UniProtKB/TrEMBL annotation:
Its EC number is 7.1.1.-. HAMAP family: NDH1_NuoH (MF_01350). Belongs to the complex I subunit 1 family. GO terms for molecular function: NADH dehydrogenase activity; oxidoreductase activity, acting on NAD(P)H, quinone or similar compound as acceptor; quinone binding. InterPro entries: NADH_UbQ_OxRdtase_su1/FPO, NADH_UbQ_OxRdtase_su1_CS. It is a multi-pass membrane protein. This is NADH-quinone oxidoreductase subunit H. It catalyses: a quinone + NADH + 5 H(+)(in) = a quinol + NAD(+) + 4 H(+)(out). Keywords: Cell membrane, Membrane, NAD, Quinone, Translocase, Transmembrane, Transmembrane helix, Ubiquinone. The gene is nuoH.
Length: 345
């Protein structure tokens, strides 16, 4: 393996990691600004112009607060919980195609860490692993409220991963590929976006994303009114910060995945009719991709300050009795339409 390729990938991984952390950090400010806007108030506005230094203040607070480990806690697993949560949150972005190729000199640089031909399965594996960080943290805290939050997280994850996976099966029947890059390439042109052929699948995937990210109205694992914070109730200092960062990184990666699977990824209308060089089209495509991601992140926040939290039995009923049957019906409908199309057209 040539040295230039290794350096290229290391720089790309480092850049994506930094961008992910910065977006997660400023999502905390955006969350409070959106809340302030929807509640007719300003939100944070003291630390720097328009409060733009507030995330740095919050990060400093997490770093310098006293770190407390409960006397009855399993120390190793107590530390391992938030570590797994943040690692699994960060590695999900490795298979997402952020843009087309950039040509610098004689080198063609792919704006994707790795293009595995089972990228969709990789994302599901990462999502499945993320719940272990919550489970370990909840159990190791030796607190009944944190344990109950962890059990809720595991049950919620199992329930909604099934519906999410079934919704993607219908999409894979259309795309005939598990490679995220190939799925994006197939969506070149506004009319070819998968949202037009899989609207029900996208709706199911979107709802399941809220549950997988433990976002309102599905934030039952950390329900303050019942569990005083849930699985992270005993955490303080930067360990609590890692759990919070993991949630916002999950939201960012979920938004990128939805934009990739259903909204064309880095593709945008008339991209091949601009008469620009490939590098400029790539740069514009990256900016468009991030605009789609930010739109989804705003939607996550908008829903948080619009809808009330579900009861836990309502959450389970929605997953098992509504979303899973709808996802199965969507698979059958997609299969019927595909057979009719192949037979008569």
């Amino acid at each position: 393996m040539e040295l230039a390729f290794v350096i290229e990938k290391v720089l790309l991984v480092s850049l994506i990691f930094v961008i992910t952390l910065v977006i997660a950090m400023y999502s905390t400010l955006a969350e409070r600004k959106v809340a302030g806007f929807m509640q007719d108030r300003f939100g944070p506005d003291r630390a720097g112009p328009f409060g733009i230094l507030q995330p740095l203040c919050d990060g400093g607070k997490f770093f310098f607060k006293e770190e407390i480990i409960p006397a009855g806690a399993h120390k190793t697993l107590f530390i391992l919980g938030p570590t797994i949560a943040i690692i699994t949150a960060c590695i999900g972005s490795a298979v997402i195609p952020w843009g087309q190729e950039l040509t610098i000199g004689e080198r063609v640089i792919e704006l994707q860490v790795t293009d595995v031909n089972v990228g969709v399965l990789y994302m599901f594996g990462v999502v499945a692993l993320s719940v272990y960080g919550i489970m370990l943290g909840g159990w190791a805290s030796n607190n009944k409220f944190s344990l109950m939050g962890a059990v809720r997280a595991a049950s919620q994850s199992i329930s909604y991963e099934l519906a999410m996976g079934l919704s993607l099966i219908a999409l894979l029947m259309v795309t005939q590929s598990l490679s995220l890059k190939e799925i994006v390439v197939q969506q070149e042109g506004f009319v070819n976006w998968n949202i037009w052929v899989q609207p029900l699948g996208f709706l199911i995937f979107l709802i399941c994303s809220f549950a997988e990210c433990s976002r309102v109205p599905f934030d039952l694992p950390e329900c303050e009114t019942e569990l005083i914070g849930g699985y992270n109730v005993e955490y303080s200092s930067m360990k609590l910060g890692l759990y919070m960062f993991a949630e916002y990184i999950h939201m960012f990666v979920s938004s990128a995945l939805m934009a990739t699977l259903y909204f064309g990824g880095y593709n945008f209308p008339f991209m091949n009719d601009l008469g620009l060089s490939q590098n400029w089209i790539t740069i514009i495509g990256v900016l468009v991709f991030f605009a789609k991601i930010f739109a989804f992140i705003f939607f996550f926040m908008w829903i948080r300050w619009t809808l009330p939290r579900f009861r836990y039995d309502q959450l389970m009923n929605l997953g098992w009795k509504v979303l899973i049957p709808l996802a199965i019906a969507n698979i059958v409908l997609t299969g019927v339409i595909t057979v009719i199309k192949d037979t008569f057209f």
